[in-house]
Amino acid sequence: MSNASHLLSRLSAWRVLPAIAGIYISQTVITALTTQALPSLLRDAGASLQVAGLTALLWIPWGIRFLWSPAVERWRLPAGRLERRSRTLVLAGQWLIAAVLLLLGVAALNGYLSLADHAGWILGGLLAAALVAATTDVASDGFTVEQLAAQQRGWGNVAQVGGSYVGAMIGAGGFLLVAGTLGWPQALLAAALAIVLLSVPMLLLREPPRDAALAVDHRPALLHALRRPEVRTGLLLMLLSSIGVRLTLGMFGPFLLDKGLSLEQLGWLFGSLHIGAGLSGAVLGGVLVRAVSGWRAVWIAVSLKACVLLALTLAAPTASLTVLMVLVGLMFAALGFVWVALYSALMGLTSPLQSGVDFTVFQSADALLAMAGGVAGGWLSQHLGYNVCFALAAASAVVAVFVVRHKAPALDAMATRQAAA
């Protein structure tokens, strides 16, 4: 396919990037609200820890959405036709999520819902919102891959990862702040309004049609993705690069609490350091991808993560709380750095015939790894100590560096052939 036809099928980056940021901020508002803010609200209202813990189930749609991603992709890219329907799917999803939050908020304001007595109904409503968000993310991923040229994907991933950090700040800290000041029903209404406003950049776009060469009678399918060596290799390297993150991410808070930090101090630390360091790491990741593209950027980023994990492993037993806080902050920056480089490289391995399905396979695998890694990290820290958990994470990152560095030339050649096809 010629470069000219590629250009005709894409919007300009300055129009796409705000839309991408709006999509991923709004999606993370939902995940942060349900998995971070809601447990705190339920516990504060007197719910049991078991009920509060059930909010972890709201991750399930993100882990299994690959199962219905082909059906979403078939509707998004109708076979034999030039039209794309990403915009329609994304907007419908965002407005449906806002409607769910609005209904919950209005019901609570009118006395029909309370946190103490109707937690199941509230969890059910938010599970429906999470299901919609996970489903429309298939279209979001396809839109992002299609509308950004290879050299722009670094900044697109900055918008994705940075948007996720901003969404986490709004959905967790911002939601709790409004709930504590005005009440949780008002916080739900505010979240609904925020999601509607975040849909405006996408609403203002007009998605261009596909290239005629791609409007073939292709039926998006999981088997098509898994048969491709690019997807299989990308899955392996993505999981290897992420396992250290997933083992340790849920343990940083308990680790600092056990080292003497108060709950209030931890809240401020995560609300400021987490967001600031993560956004800084994401921007630096964008710079790295612009300077060193493809999988070479991934192994450089994972090398940085391995160094921070090794430093944290060595410092954990005896270092001061200040040093440990700095290392945790560096870890958050390294995570933003890694995710931008990794997502950009994975986008290069997706098929233009079903980019939404292929990229969803990668992200669903990471979500399932997050659930399994969180459980494993908790078990390791409880029974063998934080130091063993951090050491295993560091060892996995070192292994990932060598494997990704070895595979990088072949993967970058695959991505180049994909772009030229």
From TrEMBL:
Note the SUPFAM superfamilies from the entry. MFS general substrate transporter
One GO term describing the cellular component = membrane
Q: What is its main location?
A: membrane
UniProt xrefs under InterPro entries: AmpG_permease/AT-1 (IPR004752), MFS (IPR011701), MFS_trans_sf (IPR036259)
- Give the record's keywords alphabetically: Membrane, Transmembrane, Transmembrane helix, Transport
Q: Could you tell me where this protein is found in the cell?
A: Membrane
Taken from the record, one Pfam family name reads MFS_1
The membrane topology term of the UniProt record is: Multi-pass membrane protein
- GO molecular-function term, one example from the UniProt record: transmembrane transporter activity
- Membrane-spanning parts: 12-35, 47-68, 89-113, 119-140, 161-181, 187-205, 235-256, 268-289, 296-316, 322-347, 359-379, 385-404
Its recorded name reads: MFS family transporter
Q: Which organism is it from?
A: Thauera linaloolentis (strain DSM 12138 / JCM 21573 / CCUG 41526 / CIP 105981 / IAM 15112 / NBRC 102519 / 47Lol)
